[in-house]
Write a structure and sequence with these properties.
two-stranded antiparallel ribbon, mainly alpha, eight-stranded mixed beta sheet
Length: 721
Amino acid sequence: MASAISNNFFSKKMMRLLVGTQKIFGVVMFCCLCNSVFSAVDSIPIKKNILEQITAIKKEQRRIDMLDGIADRKVTLRDPTATTYAGKVYFDLSDSLLRAINNPEFNESRKLALYETLLAQMQKIDSSTVYGVKRYDVFFRFMSGEMNAILQNNLYPYLVNNINQAFNTFAIVKNESCADSFLVFASNYRPDLVFINYRNYGKKSYSLHVIEEASKIAPVTVKRYFNPGDPIYEALKLSHDSVVKIILQIKERYMRKSNAFTLLDGIVSGAYTMEKADAIGKEPRKFLQAMLKIRGKKNPLAAHSLEGDLAIYSLKFVRVLNDLHNEKDEVRFASIEKFTGEELYTLMVYSEEEIFTSTFNGLFKRMMVKMGPVSGFEFLGQLGDNRFRTFIKMCAGFGKLEPFLHTMTAVYQQMLMIKFASGLEKYNDLSQAVEVADAFGSINDSLVLKILRGTIKYEYVKLSADNNLRGKAIYGLLSSLFVERNVTNANWFSSVAGQYSIPSFDRIENAKLFGRDSIDRWLIYFYDDEDGEASFSTFLKTFTDPNWRIIDSGIYVKIQSKKGMPILIYANKSKHEYEGQARLEKIFADNNYEPNVMVHRGHSYYAYKTIEKIKDNTQIFVLGSCGGYNSISTIIDRSPEISIISSKQIGTRTVNNPMLKLMAEYIRQGKDVEWQNLWNDLNTEVKGDATTYDRFLDYIPPHKNLGAIFIKTYNKMMEQE
């Protein structure tokens, strides 16, 4: 009986336990089922959006196909070659991207971002932009490489090697695990893009960290956002970062005009109080000295802002010296006679795009005296080697490399030139490699060339062993520059040159200089500076002959060829800089014209305004000053095949006018623009005037612009990888 009761009790207990377990199991199963259902429900909108994106992309392809009125997966452009190229890019390449995005290894969220990015680019192709095939080709190929990098878990290094393109695909980047580190890295080069894109990543968990770090790198850039209610400003006010708090305090006490933002490192380190930094920033030379002291440190705060302000304040002094070029040296250089050697060096390397030859020579002479017994090698070390490659390139270009090297022992000379040509693959952009390429054209010293040859060969072999494709390309191209001038190891350099040959950029075919309506259009920008009016009036006189007609349209002129090939040259009047340029831009925009030739007739600090107007079909750009790496690379980004004419100093009308006339006559007569022939003709024309001829020798024709040639060749090679 007891046993029966016990068994019955146990049975009831087990039944209750089983029932409870079933309930728990049922709840668990129900929850799992719900999660599965909810997950499926959540994925429905994404799948729907993906289908909508694919449908929209296909619709855009059909729209682009009909831009020429015929549905044949072609877009008829100015010639058969361009037409074939456009078909491959707009249809074949976009189709391959569609297939690649559908990779099962991509989750649906990632696929959606990829489709959205592709669609956004396709929507930009219309009757006015369809001729820019190269730009879309580069973008589509970058996007393809980006997808491969994601699959290989190698996205970060891919992005940092092309920051500008990475921001064009930011809808993809912002969701990746490396977005935070990429944005912080990009802040060193393009903080403006980091802040502009904040609206696209502001809700991400990493957003505050990014703008904190970007603010510490570029406080002068972020202060533009210090307005009540601005999302970046409001977010930074919540930051607990002590350096960010100091940046905000500078704004609160001294407003945005204070130069204390740039001296952030000095404030944080305790070298200056905030009040002292603000006061220093109001005195140009003291500000320059303070910036220079900070810039010599390794990884200082506000590094990007320091670079920008060092250039601005160096140019303030150099422009005064340039303007006094007709005065005696004791008058001309009086303002900088008390400058230290380090300060004089800074003026030179930060004014590369505007410094006159005579200004450089005067500053160099005084720097050598101020250096005293210190060797050039040690002197550069005291400056933290800041912009030392720029300095060596400038010394080579202005014929001062030999006296600078003679300040040091043979061992130091060798160490410096090895350092000059080493480690170029470590930089995010090609700027340092371009400095070396540019310098090479001006170096004649056999010992220096021997050191450079040995260094470049060593670096190439080392990077080949490491399978560093980018490094191999950089040093392979540099090796090609030595083939004609090489004395030893001829076979090795010739062998490498065969793999990394630099194509000739010595001519432009006449047909390429005409738009789709078979008219060659020029766009010339004059600026209302101290010699703008004289430049404009003498330019007009150059075209007063029977082959040309000048049409005055009030705030701009139009110069039209009366015989030969049809040419239209548009130029704003210098006294009507703003309204004249705006009118010309409206004419070109309203009629979908693209300038085949563009000319910048003003100081280099206006150049960016002209560069922004370059189109894909612009074949020739006359810069007027030497143009540093940033200017040249931006020009080539906008028009990859462009020929660039520049000068080691500010251009002069006594060279510009005959040069432009010769170019116009070559084109009018149906000739190809062969740069060597044109340069020989120009040489003959200006040789009679000693002053003009000296200025002419500072001009760099496209076929001699090693920096531009290097960038264009490197870009072509990378596209083929």
